[in-house]
Structure formats: structure tokens, C-alpha cells
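Something for you to look into today, if you have time. What I am after is a single protein written out in full by you. I want to see for myself how the chain folds. Could you add the entry underneath, on a fresh line?
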Amino acid sequence: MSKKVLLIEDDIALQELMVSFLESYGFEASGFADPKVALESLLDRKEPYDIVVLDLMLPGMDGFDVAKMIKSRLDIPIIISSARTDIGNKIYGYDLGADDYLDKPYEPRELVLRLEAVLRRYGRKNEHVVSDFTIDESNKSVTMEGYPIDLTRIEFDIFWLLVKNRGKNLSRDQIIGSLGLGEDIKHRTIDMHISNIRLKIGDDAKEPRYIKSVWGIGYKFTG
């Protein structure tokens, strides 16, 4: 699966060059000059990104402020790409949670190498082994005893929420609210997703091993 890169860069010529170069190396890249538009795309979550490449000198908003906003809302790696190369800026960038700091100018291939290295580190950090499952937050994948489980994105989000709250009763409203699914989502929609998850992981609804129904409340993961 191609890794999705969000490139926030107001130098349009450089942005277009980097998008084209990254795509030639198998990434799926999207470039934005306006940081506010980039943040809207990033926080939309319908098509989540895997990593952000962030310039610091942006129109209408400082890159450090963009980094703060991203890290306060999402767990996603950031590579700062900037001509502001003094040590003070680098220390501040890392303090904000940046995963790498790439000095401009640089060869496009160096960016590819940095992206691959950060994604490898981040992937290991976001891999969790719980019961019979290995859950990778970075690419939203689940394996069960080594075999991949083909969950949809919403099924993954529900399953991971239950796993993170292992042993805790979660109501349908809590699931809807925690995942930001919107008030129009019905309880029976959550039940349908739970049923699909159970089917895919081989969990018997009458005698569940992993996802148990809590009468009058909702569900809990007990694996």
C-alpha cells in the first residue's frame, strides 16, 4: 500500500517537483501552499495521511504553529523541511515533536530516504501486540496469529478503540463520540460493524472470546 505524504510547501515549483519525485518512488503525495487548506485536508481523516513534510516559512501561518496544531490533534510523523538551519530552530522543532529536520536545499532523493527511515521507525512505534492480534496504527492493519484481517477503515477504528480500552465497557454513544462519527450515526450501524468485525476474526456472537456484548450498554474487548 502506497504511503500518503502531505507536503506543505509554498514554493509551488519545488512543491510540484517533490510531488512528482515522490510519486516516482511509490508514494502518494499531495502538495499544498496554504497551511490552512493543508490542515483541513489533514484533519478530514477520510483519506488519512501517513506523514507530513512541513516547510516553516508559510503564508499567513508560521510552520512551527502548524506543527503544534498537527501534534495536538493527530499522532502522525512530521519532517520539517526548511532553510532555517540554525540549531535553535532545530531544537525547537524537535521539542514540538518533529521526527526529522531536513535542511534546504537538499537533493530530492535525500527526502525519500528520510521519509522511508521515519516511516520505519514510526511503524515500529505504532505496532501493538494484544492477545492474538498485532495491530499497526500507522497503516491501520490487523493480523491475527500472523494472518491478515481485512477490516474496513471504520471497522479498524472501532476494533482498535475497543482494544485500547480492553476490559472496559463502551457504550455505542461513546464509540460514536470517540471516533467522531457524527450524530447521524445510529446504534444499529455500530452493531452492524461489530457483527462484521466478529465475523472476520472468527468470534462467535453467542459465546464471544474477544468482543463481548454488555447488556444495556454496548461492548467490551476481553481477549
Notes: The first helix runs from residue 12 to 24. The longest strand covers residues 4-8.
